[in-house]
Amino acid sequence: MSSAVETLISILDLETLEHNLFRGRSPKVGWQRVFGGQVIGQALVAAARTVEGRVAHSLHCYFMRPGDPEVPIIYEVDRIRDGKSFTTRRVVAIQHGEAIFSMSASFQIEETGLDHQVEMPDVPAPEDLPSEADLKALFLKDAPEKVRVYWERERPIELRPVDLRHYVSREKLPPAQRVWIKTTGPLPDDPEIHRCVLAYASDMTLLDTSLFAHGRMIFDKDLQVASLDHSMWIHRPFRADEWLLYAEDSPSASGARGFNRGSLFKRDGTLVASVAQEGLIRLRTEEQ
């Protein structure tokens, strides 16, 4: 298991402080703010700790303030309802006495029913694409400093984009991308861990999709970029340590916000999850 995956599993293992109260920490990686996917994953862990015999099938999140990576995050769970088939939880993440994030999550008993799904896009297999090590060797020496620092850091999730044009040029592209993702090492067999890891990973690359049409990148100095809200629906079982195709598109950008959607497929074409997110993509003025 890679050290980055070990760290991810560690930060998802929240400390129980009291009934419905948990504490999470952030990795020491020099970020100025907490990665949004970390807060989503930790909040789902907190909610799941208060539920038995049911699995998470949807979550809806709002980011209210940037997280401070230097201090712990307190997660307070509100047990809103325990029904016959569904359980509802609300989680608030708190730092410095203020809410930085909230999430509503729903859990369901296992049931059977009608079944259909859209088809997976036809893309090259991950083995036929450059690995992250290949990409670093090819492009990092000429990349801007922020891009280089981002890609040089050991990470728990490997990304293999199908199309590299966005990462190496300023070409204006259709607002869509396809990225293979998985953890860089094996995970424990507990399905709850895989759901929480996917919640973490679902915040990666998605907001960037709204910049494709403009030939921009999240590292541009004149852009203020941040997740505003994030929703995920889990449809079918999966493993986050096996390759999943993240098919993303951005139907709209307006009002300094970009709207993005994502579908996650197993290699055999099974649709396992859907994601939607709106993010801030504000052009900075000289005064800001």
UniProtKB/TrEMBL annotation:
Limits of the Acyl-CoA thioesterase-like N-terminal HotDog domain: 30-108
Domain of life: Bacteria
GO biological process: acyl-CoA metabolic process; fatty acid catabolic process
InterPro entries: Acyl-CoA_hotdog, Acyl_CoA_thio, HotDog_dom_sf, TesB_ACOT8-like_N, TesB_C
Signal peptide boundaries: none
Sorted UniProt keywords: Hydrolase, Lipid metabolism
E.C. numbers: 3.1.2.20
All residue ranges annotated as the Acyl-CoA thioesterase 2 C-terminal domain in the record: 154-280
First-level EC class: hydrolase
Gene Ontology molecular function terms on file: fatty acyl-CoA hydrolase activity
Family: Belongs to the C/M/P thioester hydrolase family.
Protein name: Acyl-CoA thioesterase 2
Native source organism of the sequence: Bauldia litoralis
